[in-house]
Amino acid sequence: MNLENYFISQFKSEHIGDDGALIKQNVYSKDAFFENVHFKHEWMSYYQIASKAMMINISDAVAMNAKPKYALLSVSMPPRITKKQMKELASGFKDVADKYGIDIIGGDTISNVKLDITITIVSQTKKPLLRSNIKKGYLIAFTGELGRSKKDLKKLMNLGKIHKKSKFIDIKLRDKFLSNAERFLSSGMDISDGLFSDLDKLSSVNRVGFKFNTKILKSIGCSGEEYEMLVAFDKRHKKAVLRRAKQSRTPLNIFAKSVRKRYVNCCKANHF
Amino acid sequence: MNLENYFISQFKSEHIGDDGALIKQNVYSKDAFFENVHFKHEWMSYYQIASKAMMINISDAVAMNAKPKYALLSVSMPPRITKKQMKELASGFKDVADKYGIDIIGGDTISNVKLDITITIVSQTKKPLLRSNIKKGYLIAFTGELGRSKKDLKKLMNLGKIHKKSKFIDIKLRDKFLSNAERFLSSGMDISDGLFSDLDKLSSVNRVGFKFNTKILKSIGCSGEEYEMLVAFDKRHKKAVLRRAKQSRTPLNIFAKSVRKRYVNCCKANHF
């Protein structure tokens, strides 16, 4: 067990294990977005940094089929920051909040060595989508295309430039597809650590393995920060799910089915 | 306006302005506790760091007369951390959570250069205590003793040692007094930035000044991180409030009354 998982294993709440914690109809989620851990400040404008910090957090809410309502920000400001940059940062937070109907209700700002952000999202759902509920024989699918995020990160690490519409900067969420298809989906999560690593989580929770119907390269399966959706559903809902995907213009790739087999994640760990 | 306040002023939610954001009967609060900003790792054990991070966050809930229910942790781990230290850290979070009946329901852990913690607390209240509602002629009081925190911080900065029961390490909250006296208190907040700075906030919100009935030295009024309570109440409740303070063994110092006068904070700003 890596140290990160060891730390998490110390906490035993029944609410831990999904993209957010479900309590009655509320979902609580919280993710960090830290300079030199998740981004370098040369890579993105302050506006883009704030927007992405919001989007990766909203992704957890959307992944549970919840509607984000409130956000709390914690922002540690680097000493170099100017008033103009701070305004840009605030605009990034606010524009995404406005787009999703989120009220930014509080938080904390401090002065620190670098720009480190954590965001808490309070969201609401009547039909939560959890990581559990996968039975053997269910179909497994992901939305959109995978692999671009890892490629673009590599470019940035090699001092290259990426398009401002790159998924690494400008995340698209699949909230329309999820709310359209909610009746037919059994299980879901967002692809933040990478398809293969996130399948590993579904495998542990549901005690199933996966039989792939197509070969997926490591460059695709090990690409993290994709923020596409990974979903599972009963095969008798296949047509209905595909129809809802089409209606919401969401490419949907059914790439595996759940089986009684051990799943082995072949990606190297990102953390620690 | 300093840069921190400028940033906060960019957000206009009606829920911003108290120690936490009140939405129906829920209170949401979030505070950062960062290495080299709020503590140095030589000053405290990992257990003490985690406990204090929890306590300063619970203080916001208690200050609003709310009962903390859930916590989300975001912990950035330094590369030097060992498994043993991580366990100590987890114990610090858990022991305080257990003491206050809080369920730690999620969060995020990352690998970073230093130990930076943010905590979100979800709490519940039937009778919230806000910063507003002070009328002219109300009595203003603080609990406990002030000044020790600043003195102890100075000792630590000069490489001295402090007692492990020092308020700088081991915070006592005034939840018993607050729940006992809730009927009689009009307004309240915790003293985190220092008495004089926190009076400044009450002054802005309520458009009142304060007439002191006793001289308070800067070494006391400008001492931050005290986590005592600052409260206001109608003078006809004076006896009742003092009785409840006594019942809960809480020293209560009535030091001023609110007046139609401008208030001037004589402390230097801590931030930025």
SSE inventory with pairings:
The structure is a homodimer of 272-residue chains.
Chain A: H1 3-9, E1 21-23, E2 26-34, H2 46-63, E3 67-77, H3 83-99, E4 103-111, E5 116-124, E6 139-143, H4 148-157, H5 175-181, E7 187-190, H6 195-206, E8 209-212, H7 218-221, E9 229-233, H8 238-247, E10 252-259
Parallel strand pairs in A: 3-4
Antiparallel strand pairs in A: 1-2, 2-5, 3-5, 6-9, 6-10, 7-9, 8-10
Structure notes:
The structure is a homodimer of 272-residue chains. The first copy, chain A, is an alpha+beta fold. Chain A has two domains: 3-124, 60s Ribosomal Protein L30, Chain: A, CATH 3.30.1330; 139-259, Phosphoribosyl-aminoimidazole Synthetase, Chain A, domain 2 (Alpha-Beta Complex), CATH 3.90.650.10. The first copy, chain A, has eight helices and ten strands. In chain A, the strands form two sheets. A five-stranded mixed sheet of chain A has the order 1-2-5-3-4, covered by helices on one side. In chain A, helix 2 runs parallel beside helix 3 (83-99). Chains A, B: This is Thiamine-monophosphate kinase.
- CATH H-tier superfamily of the largest domain in chain A: PurM-like, N-terminal domain
Number of strands of chain A: 10
The strands making up the biggest β-sheet of chain A line up spatially as 1-2-5-3-4
**Overall pLDDT score of chain A:** 94
N-to-C terminal Cα separation of chain A, in Å? 11 Å
Query: Would you tell me the structural class of the helices and strands of chain A?
Result: alpha+beta
Binding site for Mg(2+) 4 (chains A, B): 19, 29, 60
Binding site for substrate (chains A, B): 38, 225
Binding site for Mg(2+) 1 (chains A, B): 31, 108
GO molecular function (chains A, B): ATP binding; magnesium ion binding; thiamine-phosphate kinase activity
